[in-house]
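hiii, so i know i said id send this last week but things got crazy w the move. better late than never?? heres the sequnce for the chain we talked about at the cafe, plus the structure i predicted for it. fair warning i was half asleep when i ran it
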Amino acid sequence: MTIITGDKAEDSELGSTARQKPRPSYAQILQSSSIIGGAQGVNYVVGMVRTKLVAMLLGPSGVGLVGLYVSVTSLVSTISGLGIATSSVRDLAQAQSSGDANQLAIATKVLRRACWFTGFLGWAATVALAYPLSRWTFGSGERATALALLGITILLTALTSSEKSLLQGTRRIGHLACANVISAMASTLIAAGLYYWLGESGIIPVLITTAAASLGILWWFTRQIALLPIRMTLQDTWRRSKSLLRLGLAFMWAGLLSAAVSLVIPALIVRNLGLEASGIYQAAWGISGVFAGFILTAMGTDFYPRLAAVANDDKHVNRLVNEQTEIGVLLALPGLLATLSFSPFLISIFYSTRFAAGAELLPWFVLGVFGQVISWPMGYSLIAKGASRWYLLTESSANLFRLAGSILLLKWLGLWGVSLAFAILYAEHTLLMFWVCQHQTGFCWSAPVLKLLLLSGGLILLVFLLQEWPGGNTGTFLGSTATVGACVFCARGLCARLGADHRVSKALRRLPLVGHILVPGVR
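okay and structure toks below
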């Protein structure tokens, strides 16, 4: 039996092949990480260009107005969406892996109908609440009409989410990455043209047009998926949608709680230490996740549906979690060490010397990000198995712990305490996730993973301590040396797991002078 993925068919481990030893997924993890990471990089550059153009054409007041409109509609969209688009990825992935075309068509129709409903619900809510939302956001009701018009973007966003989930659930990762890049470029061109023509009056047309363009681009990709024509009554749709709601509401709550905590912490910093301190915090926070961000995004885009496809096989789930942890750590380690070693320079490059105090916060944020790389694969196993209560419990506890820790340590230690709270959070959260996954699936880190975690954790702690070296640039030099060593170690680790015949191993082998060092067994 074969599973049709984005670009090719893969051997299934179901049916007659279920007795064979599963193949390691290292190559798949690396491929998806590189695809999603590359698309993220392009989107980041395009986003910077768009931000620059909008700033030049609209000025600070226009940029602020766009931000407020987007914040309001995003909040309504998150609530009205009920998390259905994200939770449906699980059903789509399981239908795809089963090879049952009828089940895939049913899951798709349920998703699309549910998103039409939540989209119209969000639009109606925006129209009904336009006046109070305007007063709450802008201090008057003069923007109520504009917010009511923007309600259509909530419908368009809901429909866009359904098409994204379909691509993700059927693991067409290449198509999803292409759609995201094309959408970013199209949005930039549309925004530049309309803002140049209409100025600040073009904000509403831009937001609506770019939302429609994103939906059209995604639809062009999803229409290439062959789906059986089926008929479903509204009663059947509702019955199947209820199963999506259980996990979806957990997603919605976790998203709202995370957004609330992310809003409250900077507000607390402003209240206690001033606006400048908040800017320093935001600068350090933004840089800390740059190198690991594409790995974490790839987990949600590709790892989640792959895990959902085998959710009923605990041994298979645990093997995939271990393999994802290995590749995630090997890919993230050099970037995290580089961030630790060059934190003052990174702050100056991305921002300015006025943000230099952020270099004291950055190392603690890096420790927390390392915890994310370790704990997130375990978290996705809960989502894949539909353990909505455990997911809700772990996410709620993490956000509340971070908020409580930030409040307490901000008062005791000042701004540095907020970054320390994040590091402590992910030390606690990693242990909690390990305990929960042991309870749910009998999970345990394999011997190679434990060895890798101890070694990489030791390196990060060493470079972290080197930043306190009293000899000026001595710590930076030693940290950069450790970073280079980690690059060699991680390259060797990837090649050993991918095999000598993989194209990455072959490419590294051809490098002059260092090829035999990077690829194990090559002389």
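btw The longest helix spans residues 26-81. thought thatd interest u
miss u guys!!
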